[in-house]
């Protein structure tokens, strides 16, 4: 028996209530993981609020975590008790212990910090598929990233720099602007005091960007399209300010034969081989120092509601980690 946070119905942060949760024995292909740390992400908010439909009720939020294998069921060959692991799944991580399919777990190499990686599996693997699959960036490209001081944004800035890309970020306020600059961005626009569309035009001498990575949504999508070169790519991978409204395919034609992509991480790690390949690329970047993981804030798991409130109010930078 372990504790966890459940929601009986969609609502605000207060909808999550701490309760005792029974723990079943692992079945074939399953293991028990005792969580070390759990990351906080907007997908957790989207499920808790009901923006994303619930496949089951009650619902346990939480998409990424690290931990230690406590028990192994039959037919598990690659993991043993005591192994350090991490994972990313749509929900279910806001608890102390959990039975999980072994094929969804990624062993952690020596040198990878268990607390920091708990807030970087979803964010780091997202950054990887964004720059390799949603749009494959190449040296010399110019890229715009919204929310550059957020969890994904800070990893993206470092990854883009390593790939030889000219990266422009947007962030809200001087502190967030400075933080984004420290993480690889060539230019960072303070959207609170500057028109990011005009600034991108100025910074690129009117040429625009090959791709815009936009996780903000409602507040930014129209401007994002204006920042693109002819035949550029608009990648909308989140909606922290709300869903896109009134978007039409004709908007892409008016922008210059643009393309648009609305990816979800879980479609890029369906197969275990792809999950391990992307995880290995992330771990390699961390271990060689190309990407550093900044844990901006930690809270006990029971304080997840406060973490959600801060995230929704855009008071956070980088990763917030819930300690178990």
TrEMBL record:
InterPro entries: ADH-like_C (IPR013149), ADH-like_N (IPR013154), ER (IPR020843), GroES-like_sf (IPR011032), NAD(P)-bd_dom_sf (IPR036291), QOR-like (IPR047618), Quin_OxRdtase/zeta-crystal_CS (IPR002364). Coiled coil: none annotated. SMART domains: PKS_ER. It comes from Rhodobium gokarnense. Keywords: NADP, Oxidoreductase. Residues 11-322 form the Enoyl reductase (ER) domain. Transmembrane segments: none annotated. Gene3D superfamilies: Medium-chain alcohol dehydrogenases, catalytic domain, NAD(P)-binding Rossmann-like Domain. Signal peptide: none annotated. Its EC number is 1.6.5.5. GO terms for molecular function: quinone reductase (NADPH) activity. It holds the Pfam family ADH_zinc_N. The lineage of its organism: Bacteria, Pseudomonadati, Pseudomonadota, Alphaproteobacteria, Hyphomicrobiales. CDD domains: QOR2. This is NADPH2:quinone reductase.
């Amino acid at each position: 028996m372990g504790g966890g946070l459940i929601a009986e119905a969609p609502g605000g942060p207060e909808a999550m209530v701490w309760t005792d949760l029974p723990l079943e024995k692992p079945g074939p292909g399953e293991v028990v993981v005792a969580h070390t740390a759990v990351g906080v992400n907007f997908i957790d908010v989207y499920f808790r609020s009901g923006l994303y439909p619930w496949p089951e009720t009650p619902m346990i939020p939480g998409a990424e975590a690290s931990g230690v294998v406590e028990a192994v069921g039959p037919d598990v060959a690659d993991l043993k008790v005591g192994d350090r692991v991490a994972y990313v799944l749509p929900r279910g991580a806001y608890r102390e212990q959990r039975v999980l399919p072994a094929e969804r777990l990624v062993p952690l190499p020596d040198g990878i910090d268990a607390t920091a990686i708990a807030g970087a599996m979803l964010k780091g693997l997202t950054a990887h598929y964004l720059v390799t699959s949603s749009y494959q960036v190449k040296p010399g490209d110019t890229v715009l990233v919204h929310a550059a001081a957020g969890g994904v944004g800070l990893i993206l800035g470092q990854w883009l720099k390593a790939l030889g890309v000219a990266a422009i970020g947007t962030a809200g306020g001087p502190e967030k602007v400075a933080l984004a600059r420290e993480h690889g961005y060539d230019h960072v626009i303070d959207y609170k005091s500057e028109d990011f569309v005009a600034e991108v035009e100025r910074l690129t001498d009117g040429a625009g960007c090959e791709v815009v990575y936009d996780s903000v949504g409602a507040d930014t999508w129209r401007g994002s399209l204006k920042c693109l070169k002819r035949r550029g790519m608009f990648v909308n991978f989140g909606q922290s300010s709300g869903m896109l409204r009134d978007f039409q395919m004709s908007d892409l034609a008016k922008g210059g034969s643009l393309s648009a992509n609305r990816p979800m991480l879980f479609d890029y790690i369906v197969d275990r081989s792809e999950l391990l390949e992307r995880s290995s690329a992330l771990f390699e970047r961390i271990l060689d120092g190309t990407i550093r993981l900044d844990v901006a804030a930690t809270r006990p798991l029971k304080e997840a509601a406060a973490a959600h409130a801060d995230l929704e109010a855009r008071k956070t930078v980088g990763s917030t980690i819930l300690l178990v």
